[in-house]
Structures are given as C-alpha cells and as structure tokens.
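May I ask you for just one protein sequence along with its backbone structure tokens in two labelled lines?

_____
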Amino acid sequence: MAGRKPTVPDDEILDVFFQASEPVLTTSEVADQIGLGRRGTFNRLSALEEQGEIQMKNVGQTGAVWWHPNSLRRKYVPSEES
C-alpha cells in the first residue's frame, strides 16, 4: 500500500469485526470505531480485502459491507462445548 504509514494497526481494524454486534459493517461504522476518515478507512479495508483478511460486498450504487469470516463463525456457529 503506497502513501503514508498507517496510523492504526491492521490488528486494531480487524478487532472491530470481532467486537461488533452486527455480522457485517459499513465503512462508516468501522471508521467511527478506529478514528479514521471514511476514505482512509475504505482504503485500509480494501487493502485488507486484497490480502484476504476480510471480505466485501457492494450494496446499492455506492455502498459496501465488510465482514471477517472468522468473526462470523465465532458469533453464529454453535459451539461444540454446549
């Protein structure tokens, strides 16, 4: 990724998905949690998607939702320890 050095570590961005109560998040929702602007957050999320860390789906004309597959498994797949 070209440009300035990231001020928020990737792990902190990824942690947002594990802490969220929703299965998918918008760029703005992630931005609010990490303290970056929407454009900067979108760029970081896009880079994480390119690295295979998270997934994205376009919604409508300009929207997108993001998710981390492992966070979904933790929240929505029953535990074997029941």
About this structure: The mean pLDDT is 86. Helices lie at 10-19, 27-34, 38-50, 69-76. The domain at 10-72 is CATH 1.10.10.10 (Arc Repressor Mutant, subunit A). The longest helix spans residues 38-50.
